[in-house]
UniProtKB/TrEMBL annotation:
This is Uncharacterized protein. It comes from Physcomitrium patens (Spreading-leaved earth moss). Keywords: Dioxygenase, Iron, Metal-binding, Oxidoreductase, Signal. InterPro entries: Carotenoid_Oase (IPR004294). Residues 1-24 form the signal peptide. Its cofactor is Fe(2+).
Amino acid sequence: MVKNKVSLFAHVLILLTSMYSAEEEVCYLVILDARNIGSENPVVARLQLPAKYAFPYGFHGLWTDVDIKRT
């Protein structure tokens, strides 16, 4: 039993990113250990996405706290 759930994840730092393999023609959701970026293998998991969720070349994201309205 975990008495303090906050302390269980207090030192976990992850980074989610997408990866497209042109050789395999599939997309992956990749989970990285943010503390090990730059090391030999920071990959925690690599999940293959179904084809209907494939990211196109040039896929970009934008996160902001500003409400952006399209005109």
